[in-house]
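ok trying again, last paste got cut off:
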Amino acid sequence: MKVLIIEDDDKVGSFLSRGLKAEGYLTLLLQDGRALMDVCRQFEPDVIVLDRMLPHQDGLQLCQQIRSQAIPARILILSALSEVDERVKGLRAGADDYLGKPFHFEELLARIEALFKRDLGQTQSRQLQVADLQLDLDSMQAQRAGVPLNLTAKELGILELLMSNSGKVFSRERILTNVWGLNEDPLTNIVDVYMARLRKKVDESHVVKLLHTRRGLGYCLQPE
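nice, full thing came through this time. structure:
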């Protein structure tokens, strides 16, 4: 399998190239995307590992350009911008997967293998499901009882956290840290505001409620 790496950091690019070659992949390393289209047509990569912050052109723009040219390669965006809203931007730009930096090489390798298997007809979408609530982690689209939910990036981040740990109670502080990051003021009531919005979208029209407040403890998601 051929992997095209677009990474402007010499150390990271060299590490990725050497690591993937050691696993038997044929790799090609670019430090920016200026010659990307020509390289894609000549090298014909199966997977493109694309850094988000590149000189000359943003990785999201490159991702959109690849898709507009109908290049069939799978795209894995690799970026230090790893908040939920940034991941959503990457997926909506046409990426097949998004991995934050710093990363473990074993996870990167597993994700590349999974992307390659899709082209072998072995696609298995990554989905979370609790009762009739579903969240597709590839497209970051949620639905309840088959009806799509119009959720913001932060709402999707909260939902992913709670669905991944169904029945587990998360304090406001832990939700704040996981979804907003460490720099958000822990005294803000933003978590309560977003939970109220999320509960309205997920539960309001359903008899079985999934989002629950545990007084003095926090929030959890599980069938009532």
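cool. The domain at 2-118 is CATH 3.40.50.2300 (Rossmann fold). The mean pLDDT is 87.
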